[in-house]
Amino acid sequence: MKLKSRPEDFVVEEISSFTPDPAGRFFVYELTKRSLATFEALRVIAREAGMHARDLSAAGLKDKHGLTRQLISSPRVLPGKLKDDRLELRLVGKATAVMTAGSIVGNRFEITMRNLREADLEVLPRNAAEIRQFGLPNYYDNQRFGGIAHGRGFIGRALAVGDFEQALRLHLAAPHRKQSLTDKNNRRLADELWGDWDTLHHRMKRSPERALVDYLRKNPRDWAGCFDRITPSLRVLFVAAYQSWLFNETVRRMIKAAVPVQHMKYRAGELAFYRELPPEVLARWRDMEVPQLGPGTRLEDFPEAAPHVVEVLKSEGISQEQLAVEGLERTGFKASARKALMWPGNFEMDDPVDDELNEGAKAVTLRFDLGRGMFGTMVTRRLGLRVY
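^ that's the sequence the OP posted. Answer follows.
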């Protein structure tokens, strides 16, 4: 199976609760983007508008690889026509406050799966029926981890154990494949010259990371102070990536302990999928939440997930209290909760057609709705699960 062979193969449209308010002081736009991550798109728009990217707010983060539509807000009018043809803006009204995640109800997906062979097509009807009846685990997928969960470990875990130098090193000195050549070269230099801040600063190309090295030239070994100067949106992502992995591991262990499973690899490890759930398990899990761990999480509020949370923390060698990240002023884990299962709404699957991009193969298009923060690619993973 191939996904995202072209942007039109992966269409995501935000389902929003936004209601225009003519008296509002913020301008709200529908942003259509192709092959750009949300943060990248905001930087491009801000540059063309003569603004700072931090002045623009997006209700949610949308995948880079696809055609996506989402709402953003700006304190002033944005250009009607952008020079970058990957982006389009349409003014939809005004608001009294900036767009936030609270503005999103969910997302509508239209996904074309390509390069399907006979063995792939055989499993689709059964898998689709099982998804409709039993839902599927509400895991975070690769997009949540990106280059953050690379082979050297999670920045969020380094923060939890108080190793702020390691956290900085994972950010500044660990290149990954989706970075630009400049970013990769800067990080290779940082890995080679770690601690020799003067030489490193001289040889690095201009970038936010070079500014952090400049801080270390003047404040050597102030790892915490330097980390707190990383762009806020990135610090949030570092914490969220590890928190999301802890969630995935908790759900994986909980499912594995309850029912037969099939495993599937992903960027951050392994996922466990069930095919069906006994009625009593389905009744318990249908609307059950699993904690997004923070120091304030009350495990007694999650009786079925709690033992697995404890196991995951033990395997990581950390305690829940360490998620407070003492020593950092601006960075920490915030407790919340997330549904254990997802239930795609308005689920439709077209009949197979010839795949014009892959000779001799078929393509199938899906349409469905998911709640806020749920991953459409997880539905395609479950649809492709082979029968053993």
